[in-house]
Structures are given as structure tokens and as C-alpha cells.
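Agenda item 2: zinc ion complex prediction
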Amino acid sequence: MARLGAQGVPAFLVGAELVIGFDKNRLSSLLFDRVVECPKCRAKLRLPSEKGTLRVTCSRCGDRFETST
Ligand SMILES: [Zn+2]
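Presented output:
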């Protein structure tokens, strides 16, 4: 944790995301949102879960694709 720059307590490491302090909304979105991979550039995109089929625009390469959540 210290190596990652976490100085406050508590700190949570959820996947690759570091959350410092007990930020309940941020933690629940990290835990419950769906992560999809862009089929073109393989960027990881975070989407809300349980929203049916979503049209997604990749924030890295701008590719558009549909995915079900
Ligand atoms: Zn992409």
C-alpha cells in the first residue's frame, strides 16, 4: 500500500484502482460495475452493471461497440 502512495487509512485496492478513505460510493461502483475490454485496443472500460445492452464508445481509441451488462 505504501508503495502505491496510500497514506491515509483505510485504503482499498480494488483491481487496479486504489481508493483512499472509505468512499462508499466509489467502492461500490468499483465492486459492482462491469469492466469490459475494447475489442480494438484492449482498453479496460468500466460500465454500470445490469443496464442491458449498452453502446459503448472507447475512451482510448474511439471505437464503438455494443456489449451486454
Ligand atoms: Zn479502444
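Discussion summary: The mean pLDDT is 82.
Owner for follow-up: CH.
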